Amino acid sequence: MTLSHSPSGSATRRPRGVDRQSRAGIAFVAAYVLLLIAFGILPTGYAVYFAFTDAGGTFTGFSNFVTTAQDFRFMDAVGHVAVYLLFWLVSLVVFVVSLALLLHRLASSAVSRSLRFLFYIPGALAGAASVLVWLFMLDPTVSPVSSLLGMLGFDTFGEVIAPGNLALLFTIIAFWTGAGGWIVVIYGALNNIPKDVMEAARIDGASAWQTAWHVQIPMLRKWIVYMVILAFAGGAQLFVEPQLLSLASVGVAGRDYSLNQLTYDFAFQMNNINGAAAVSVELLVVSVSAAALFVARSGFFDAD
Amino acid sequence: MTVNKPSSSPQRAVSRRRSALLAGCAATVLLTVSACGGGTAGTTDKDGFAQAPQKDGALTVWVDATRMDAAKLYQKLHPEVKLDIVSYDGNANGSNYLQTKVQLFNRTGKGWPDVVFSSQNNEVSWAVEAGFAAPLNKGLVDEATLGRFAKGANDVCTVDGTVYCLRNDLSQAVLWYNAPLLKQFGYTVPTTWEEYQQLGEKVAKEHPGYLVGDAGDSFTPEIYLWASKCGANDITGPKSVSVNTTSEACTRMAKLLDVLIKNKSMSISGVFSTDFGKNKADKVLLMPGPAWFGGAVFRDTLKTPAKQIAAAPLPQWQGDGSPSTGNVGGGTWLLSQHSTHIKAATDFLKWVTTDNAYQGEKAPGYPAYAPAAEAWLKGQNASGYFASDLSALAAASSQVWPKWGSGQFSQEAIWAATVKPGITQGKSIASMLPAWQDAIVKYAQSNGYKVSQ
User: Looking at the complex, does the CB of residue B216 fall below 8 Å from at least one CB of chain A?
Assistant: First the structure.
């Protein structure tokens, strides 16, 4: 994100205003930095310390990483999260961008406004609550769409939550809860594309499809990358959906499904906080590397 | 994010940022230190463990929703005791809430409840290691009281001869049945598993839709396979287990279940599922299940009318001389080693597990304390809900097959994740026994158990 239209001319004329402005900026950033240190950096450091030591605090090198990776559930969990991330990121990019473009094309502002509101509503439910809504949706005996589930061949909750369906189910739940906010954000970004560019495209005779593909999507690239980075980090930490599903299904589906659940098991069920820290450090490394890759390849921080 | 604006004075900004950083660090360090402080100084060795200095103050008791009545009754009868009753999920269904909290309290050095109820009977497997559960037979609870618990009731609480918890209720399996319906259909209560299977096949033909049991719960193996003496979970030491799920004892019960599941006289929904409650509640003819099925399932969940449900002994295999049954859970009460009100905590613990005012009259499950169980049975028979007396429960209370233990890993969770999805997909249980064994072995090993197969 770049704010290149700062009033650089006025800075020389009114130095005191700028001074006040920069002081306010520092104050805002300082508050954030404080919270970041207290709830982001220090816990991360704590986790890294745990990951390389044993319960007594002695340095153990990579042994925590090795023992956790050898756990029989580890590779399964890695596979689950990888498949889920693939489904979740692809569906997010494809549907969010196309829905936002559709929204933007709708001339009638009343329709567009109500659609925007509609898209955003699920996001207003907190994560756990929306998962609970879905647990009802997916149980044919109580679901309002049980006839639809019946048509797909699902007559009992147990059939719906068969192991092979889980990645798709979690993607649907995550999309329903998380995509609305992104549609609104991308829609806002679309509105930021200068009018003259769009007009030039129209005068040149570009169709809606050509405008979207050759003008709008390239100009949205940074927003899409931003969305993918955050969605990747969030998706890699998949926890609430499988955990609640495992409680609701009394352990039939979703137990030890994701890496984050495995860390939870290590920490609290097997009393191995250090192993849990090792897995969470791995998650951090993966998410940060993915973000770095996206940033580097997309020129995220390049000034326009 | 880049903001293109002329910086006024970089030096000042940096120094201010640095001081803010320092302040933040200092604040956080202070927080951490005060949270971690809470030493173990001043303990005295008494009753077999190091006791913290005793203080006045409220006794903190954690109970689940069902046991809330017990705590409230105690408060009513003992108004002089300051009681802080906290409701939690009772650690049910493998939620591990208690364990999670205790691990966190162990890190912060405070916050432990004085007495806690758990609906699980394997808490001791971690609570002793975590230094949470206090030994009870080293002075806190007298031998005479301990001796009056049903035979084997506190085995799940015992590690190397030391008792670390008291059993709340027993959950021995019996054969529940709908007496008027059975009479109407002209059947008799089966006494052997062979008869049981024949009856199931008859029901499937003559009264399709009616059920002789349910095999869809995570505790299904604890009803059928445990009763059949299947050696899936023989805890032979504090950290060793013997697992064999493919012996004759296991396979013949698995085959029986497969036959009845196939002809649909055995449900695979699970008695607490929405599907069972909606579509099968009035179709129950027979139902092998633990003692608490009478109240918790038939009366409260399925709302079966009074004077229908009766209890008979669980069927046995033909020619098996020593009758055996399974067991599903049965809660436990633990006392915290860290308690600063040990006397009050012990009084509460003794009252809640043995006193007739609760266990004899109000408890929903079969009390583990034998004198209370007698009173409880009388009360149940007098309540008029059941169509028979519940003497089958008393007989079964001492027949629970002892070679199925309570390990740190949850057998219910393993069955739910390994076998249940296969049953839903139509695979036979017999064909999944090796996979079940494999899963038990893996979970046991990852929990540090030495496994012999």
Answer: yes
